[in-house]
Design a protein that fits this description.
Blueprint: H1 8-66, E1 80-82, E2 85-95, E3 98-107, E4 110-123, E5 138-140, E6 144-147, E7 153-156, E8 161-163, E9 167-170, E10 175-176, E11 179-181, E12 185-188, E13 197-199, E14 202-204, E15 214-216, H2 230-238, E16 242-244, E17 247-249, E18 252-255, E19 261-265, E20 268-270, E21 273-277, E22 279-282, E23 286-288, E24 294-295, E25 303-305, E26 310-312, E27 318-324, E28 329-331, E29 337-343, E30 346-349, E31 355-358, E32 374-381
Parallel strand pairs: 5-8, 5-29, 6-9, 6-30, 7-10, 7-31, 8-11, 9-12, 11-13, 12-14, 13-15, 16-19, 17-20, 18-21, 19-22, 20-23, 21-24, 22-25, 23-26, 24-27, 25-27, 26-28, 27-29, 28-30, 29-31
Antiparallel strand pairs: 1-2, 2-3, 3-4, 4-32
Length: about 375
Amino acid sequence: MKTYIAKHGSAVLVVMFVILGVSGVLGTMVWSSMNSAHRARVLSERVRALAIAEAGLNYAYSILATNWSARNNPDMFPPTQYGGGSYNVTIRPVTDKLVLIISTGICGRAVVDVMADIRNYGSGSQWTEETDPFNYSILAGGGGMEWQGNGDITLLGNAPVHSHGKLFVNGNGNIIGNLSSSVEIRTVGSAQIRGNADAPAFSGKSPGNVTGTATQRNVPPVTIPDIDLTPFYNTAAQNGEVYSGSLHYSSSGTIRPRGGVMWINGSIKISGQYNIEGCIIATGDIEITGNGDAEKVGKMPLLVSRDGNITISGNGRYHGLIYAKTGDFTKTGTGDVIGTIICGDKFTKGGGWSLMSYEDVTPTDPSGGNLWKDIVGVSAWQK
């Protein structure tokens, strides 16, 4: 006879151990999942805090780039809510020309600092002799230059002509003076360059038609100056010489603005027999087809187009700085120019214009301030 012993207790223990094991695994998985979610949240908050801190630094830099004196005014950099968090900017002056920006970004529990050195490199008027745009009789931007017509043009004053783009001579009119291009000098027709010529490349009849020294070399561009026109607007406003819309002078007489400056929010066309005594600034185009003379007042510019083009087809004499900040300059007809011509894009010469006489016409602020904007940049990222 055999006796069997029940094993119910062992089965229960096995089940309990299995349940405990499964619970442990599930607990570990839950803990790991919760921990991963926490780490993801912490990482997300840190990334956002970094972006917020960088936004604060960029904001502070944009303020200093236009107003360097703000470095001494902490009220201009208050704590600011941004992007689901906030930033707090501190400006620490190191020298008169160097500051440290510390921007603290906060998002949730994450706090991130970024720092950068910001340096004021001085005003744009601190050029060398070669890079000073007012040392050139004519300076054109990337649109290049095109010389047309059959009449010779003489460049007096030993100041060269420079083009950022291609310099193209087309016709029979000789250029008596020195030329340079940052791209190429090309000549067709029978015109000669009776002076020196410098460019990375020559084509057409150049350099064979250069009577001076033709040098093939890299020619760095000369920066088109960024003149602060605000003081001239203020002068015009103080004297009631600010006009809106397009103006057209079609009769005869003298344009002599009170205070020396006329400001037009728009374009101006002068088709009559008008003389100009003063500074004309237009946000749009300036077009002159009449035969009057134009004379600058003091050290202010003569003609300025902020956003448009300047076109002269009359036969008058012009004395002063002619400045198309971003646009083209075109001159046909006759009539001498004394001073400097600067255009941000393309320069075109045609007709019987025969004399360009250089004169230093570097403008000055009518109120005695500084026309040249400070160049402010990031000199180092520290974190």
